[in-house]
Specification:
Solcar repeats lie at residues 1-83, 99-191, 200-287. It is a multi-pass membrane protein. GO terms for molecular function: transmembrane transporter activity. The chain is mainly alpha-helical. The protein has helices at 3-32, 39-50, 60-89, 98-111, 113-128, 147-158, 167-192, 202-232, 243-254, 263-290.
């Protein structure tokens, strides 16, 4: 069991959240609220209504949980990879094939859903709850007063299983997305590292990590849209009866382009976030592996 990868993934994931959270909030609002005509409209509306604070709503949720989910992803990926190498090569130190990397990334992405789904639902609902900076006398308090209150309210009003409403879409997003993510990173590092050099240079790690994030989100954005819509369904009148109904209704009302809402923001956010994630992951993992 490679525990260094669990710890390194945890640290890298937490720092990645801090880098990309404001753009994540804008992306979620565009995907779930038709009143926004574009990125700039959402940005201006958020600034006007809520101020800069609005971009960081719900951030305490991923900060406290992403270290766990990122730890699960990187730890599962690395240990699955070692198991696959042991099975078909007889040595965990053998050179992995592209299929080994793809399958290990797929396993890491799907595994994290069990941990991530409830907290991701809370995060998305808090991000989509827009209220003015100062309430006037005739305005009521927001429905959710914080992460814990949001979770308890969802469980009380909609049932505990509602916290997992977007889980199928989340699994279909993160499985293929992380498979692509790790395969892209590994392939680029291999291409850009000289044959006589064991480890990729830091500029290579940063470039490969950033591009891996972009490719991963390109694959994952369609299901990210559906996931977000299912998660916020219930804040008001229920619109979707099921996962498939959400897909059908979204396409019927907005056309196939709905699956790519937020893709530009996802890619814009993905490069710096995953550049940070991989540079921190590689440094921490390298440090921990040298410890006795």
């Amino acid at each position: 069991m490679h525990f260094a990868d669990f710890v390194a993934g945890s640290v890298g994931g937490a720092l990645g959240v801090a880098v990309g959270y404001p753009l994540d909030t804008v992306k979620v609002r565009i995907q779930t609220q038709q009143k926004f005509t574009g990125v700039w409209h959402c940005f201006r509306s958020t600034c006007k209504t809520e101020g800069v604070y609005g971009f960081f709503k719900g951030m305490s949720v991923p900060l406290t949980t992403v270290s766990i989910t990122s730890s699960v992803v990187f730890g599962t990926y690395r240990n699955c990879l070692q198991c696959l190498l042991q099975l078909h090569s007889g040595s965990p130190e053998a050179m992995p094939t592209k299929l080994d990397i793809f399958l290990s990334g797929l396993a890491g992405g799907v595994t994290q859903v069990l941990v991530m789904s409830p907290m991701d639902t809370v995060k998305v609902r808090l991000q989509c709850q827009m209220e003015p900076r100062q309430l006037s006398a005739n305005q009521t308090l927001p429905k959710y007063r914080g992460p814990i209150h949001c979770m308890l309210t969802i469980g009380q009003e909609e049932g505990v299983l509602s916290l997992y409403r977007g889980a199928p879409a989340l699994a279909l997003r993160d499985g293929p997305s992380f498979a692509t993510y790790f395969l892209t990173y590994s392939t680029l590092c291999e291409w850009l590292t000289p044959a006589d050099q064991k480890q990729p240079a830091w500029p290579v790690v940063m470039l490969a990590g950033g591009l891996a994030g972009i490719f991963g989100w390109t694959v994952g954005t369609p299901m990210d849209v559906i996931k977000a819509r299912l998660q916020v369904d219930g804040m008001g009148k229920r619109r979707y009866n099921s996962f498939l109904h959400c897909i059908a209704e979204s396409v019927r009302q907005e056309g196939p382009g709905v699956f790519f809402k937020g893709l530009g923001l996802n890619c814009m956010r993905a490069f710096p976030v995953n550049m940070v994630v991989f540079i921190v992951y590689e440094q921490v993992a390298s440090l921990l592996r040298t410890l006795p």
